[in-house]
């Protein structure tokens, strides 16, 4: 991997703790594996609670001077970090593909997306406005100021090794907070490469730490029990989110949670079918189906069901599965064996209920899986209630608008939903009726740093991105002055 990089020093395997590149206290390391090839690409420092506690203390200390700087000054440092990420987009993309598997073009797209949060929130730092309120008595002057919440702890998954971290650290640093992030142990290299660039950009020592570790629950406990932590921000499964929320209760920690989704994708009979197929391909097969906003259930109205199924299968057959570093590959491997088994299980379960495979359906060598379309899906099958997180497009048939909306909402999740329709009355009714934090209408791509991303119901708490994304990192202080 080092040989593929213009700047090999971006491939860092030590942790970045309290402004220093460090090994674990006990010298422990863990292997990072390339999911396309199965080979070990790096051995990374495997930290424990003690090192993480040092990172937290350093962040609390460094925060004092960082907060005291002007917003413009903080924004300039962040802008430099953004520029460095874009200058090194190629190398960061290659590191990301090697540890996670997504095709290089997609990986580079993620670097640009990830960096955009640093640019955006650096700019937002300058707009952390307060309020004045007309006094309730003649001698009272009321003001509200907004201050950084304190040291932020972050836990992120492997599916966006760069962007999931920048969405959290960028608003934290812009607000004036310190930050300690634990990347997923599948994908620590992208996080460490970002830390190399953070250091070069002039992010102060200690303010920002990256603490790789395989001991997820130990680190989660340190984050929830260390009194210097004031906020926990997490992206991952709903189940882990529940565990962390329970743990966070003891310290009454403010939490942001980006949890699981089970996105419906509805195609009405007045939809532009070609556009719907294009949107379904983007929403379902991006990142090989491994995003929390991927279409998980595709509902197609009876009148266009067969036509849509045929067009989708034809598009799916054009995908090229392979090593993400190879030219022309559109679809990488799954992250691990468990992910392969889950896709297989969902297909088996559907087939035993009477579903039919239109294309794909089988695992390939290693962690690769044939992109799959299955028809004849019903609400009693596993895919109706569980997130597949893989390249399986299950097609449900429906008759009426009410039925589609009812099925779409029949889940504990509420992150993203999509639908294709052209009748303006229907578009308006359905966008209002869907119980989701994000709705894509006639599009399969909804993520951007300028809009609020987040779920309702058991998909989460809080929003990331947009002018709202910095709110979770600020506390309001109301000041009552008697004159
Ligand atoms: P995913 O299916 O995306 O891996 P998880 O919720 O299992 O979803 O993992 C998301 C992140 O949370 C990962 O970095 C994982 O290591 C971490 N994690 C898992 N369990 C815990 C826990 N009990 N405490 C803290 N972090 C955890």
In short:
The protein has helices at residues 49-68, 71-87, 89-100, 104-124, 163-175, 188-201, 216-225, 238-248, 273-285, 305-316, 337-352, 382-385, 401-409, 424-433; strands at 15-17, 20-22, 29-33, 40-45, 131-133, 140-148, 151-155, 179-182, 208-210, 229-235, 254-258, 263-267, 295-301, 356-359, 372-377, 392-398, 416-420, 438-441, 460-461, 474-482. With 483 residues, the protein is an alpha/beta fold. 53% of the residues are buried.
Description:
It contains 14 helices and 20 strands. With 483 residues, the chain is α/β, with parallel strands linked by helices. The strands form 5 sheets. It has a 7-stranded mixed beta sheet with strand order 14-15-16-13-12-17-18, with helices on both faces. It has a 6-stranded mixed beta sheet with strand order 9-8-7-10-11-19, with helices on both faces. The chain has a 3-stranded antiparallel beta sheet with strand order 5-6-20, with no helix packed on it. The longest helix is centred in the N-terminal third of the chain and has 21 residues. The chain starts with 14 loop residues before the first strand and ends with a strand. Bound molecules: adenosine-5'-diphosphate. The site of adenosine-5'-diphosphate has 12 residues, from helix 7 and helix 8. Keywords: Oxidoreductase. This is NAD-dependent succinate-semialdehyde dehydrogenase. Pfam families: Aldedh.
């Amino acid at each position: 991997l080092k040989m593929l990089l213009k700047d090999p020093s971006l491939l860092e395997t030590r942790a970045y703790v309290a402004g220093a590149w460090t090994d674990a206290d006990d010298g422990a390391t863990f292997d990072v594996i390339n999911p396309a090839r199965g080979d070990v690409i790096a051995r990374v420092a495997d930290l424990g609670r003690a090192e993480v506690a040092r990172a937290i203390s350093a962040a609390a200390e460094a925060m004092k001077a960082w907060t005291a700087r002007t917003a413009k000054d903080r924004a300039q440092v962040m802008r430099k970090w953004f520029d460095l990420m874009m200058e090194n987009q190629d190398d960061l993309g290659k590191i990301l593909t090697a540890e996670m598997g997504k095709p290089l073009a997609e990986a580079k797209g993620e670097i640009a997306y990830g960096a955009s949060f640093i640019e955006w929130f650096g700019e937002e730092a300058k707009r952390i406005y307060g309020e004045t309120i007309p006094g309730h008595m003649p001698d009272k002057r009321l003001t509200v100021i907004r201050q950084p919440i304190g040291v932020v702890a972050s836990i992120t998954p492997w599916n966006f090794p760069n962007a999931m971290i920048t969405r959290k650290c960028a608003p934290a640093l812009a607000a004036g907070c310190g930050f300690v992030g634990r990347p997923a142990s599948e994908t620590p290299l992208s996080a460490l490469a970002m830390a190399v660039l953070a250091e070069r950009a002039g992010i102060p020592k200690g303010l920002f730490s990256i603490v790789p570790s395989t001991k997820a629950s130990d680190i989660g406990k340190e984050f929830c029990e260390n009194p210097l932590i004031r906020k926990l921000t997490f992206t991952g499964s709903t189940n882990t989110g529940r565990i962390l929320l329970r743990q966070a209760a003891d310290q009454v920690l403010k939490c942001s949670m980006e949890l699981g989704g089970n996105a419906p994708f509805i195609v009405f009979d007045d939809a532009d079918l070609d556009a719907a197929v294009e949107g379904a391909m983007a929403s379902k097969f991006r990142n090989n189906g491994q995003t929390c906003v991927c279409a998980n259930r595709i509902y197609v109205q009876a009148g266009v069901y067969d036509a849509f199924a045929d067009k989708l299968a034809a598009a799916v057959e054009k995908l090229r599965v392979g090593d993400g570093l190879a030219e022309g590959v559109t679809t990488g491997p799954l992250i691990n064996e468990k992910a392969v088994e889950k896709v297989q299980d969902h297909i088996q379960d559907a087939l035993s209920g009477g579903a039919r495979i239109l294309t794909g359906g089988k695992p390939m060598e290693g962690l690769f899986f044939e992109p799959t379309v299955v028809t004849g899906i019903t609400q009693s099958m596993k895919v109706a209630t569980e997130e597949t997180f893989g390249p399986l497009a299950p097609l449900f048939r429906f008759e009426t608008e009410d039925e589609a909306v009812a099925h779409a909402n029949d889940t504990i999740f509420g992150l993203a939903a999509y639908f294709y329709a052209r009748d303006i009355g229907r578009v308006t009714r359905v966008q209002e009726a869907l119980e989701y934090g994000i709705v894509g209408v006639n599009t399969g791509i909804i993520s951007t740093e300028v809009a609020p991303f987040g779920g309702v119901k058991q998909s989460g708490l809080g929003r990331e991105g947009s002018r709202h994304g910095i709110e979770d990192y600020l506390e309001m202080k109301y000041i009552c002055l008697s004159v």
